[in-house]
Specification:
By secondary structure, the chain is an all-beta fold. The protein is built from no helices and 10 strands.
Length: about 110
């Protein structure tokens, strides 16, 4: 039985994302939203699953982000839709602070 190979991609330093805020990171073909929820970092795809909205530019309230385009909402931690018109969840990524101090995703 073979083990899955895990890649790690460094995105930003923790101090680049203020608590309660998000930034967009474009790297190696990914367009990601990095969220800082009280010092806990979460990463999702930046694109809303409903339209051309950018989740990193959305309004963050608690664990949810409201898309700036059609006002659909997602749970930042799970990617699940929490308010229409969105119907498909947004992809989330396993997020770690790596040994070099970067917020990174594993995939």
């Amino acid at each position: 039985m073979s083990e899955a190979v895990c890649r790690r991609l460094a995105l930003c330093k923790p101090d680049e994302v203020e608590p309660g805020q998000a930034i967009k990171v474009e790297k190696e073909g990914f367009e990601l939203a990095v969220f800082n929820l009280g010092g806990e970092f979460h990463v999702t795809d930046d694109a809303c699953t409903h339209g051309p909205g950018s989740l990193s530019e959305g309004c963050i309230e608690g664990d949810e982000v409201e898309c700036d385009f059609h006002n659909g909402r997602f749970n930042i931690k799970t990617g699940e839709v929490t308010a229409p018109p969105c119907m498909a969840p947004v992809k989330t990524y396993r997020t770690v602070i790596d040994s070099d101090g970067f917020v990174s995703i594993e995939f």
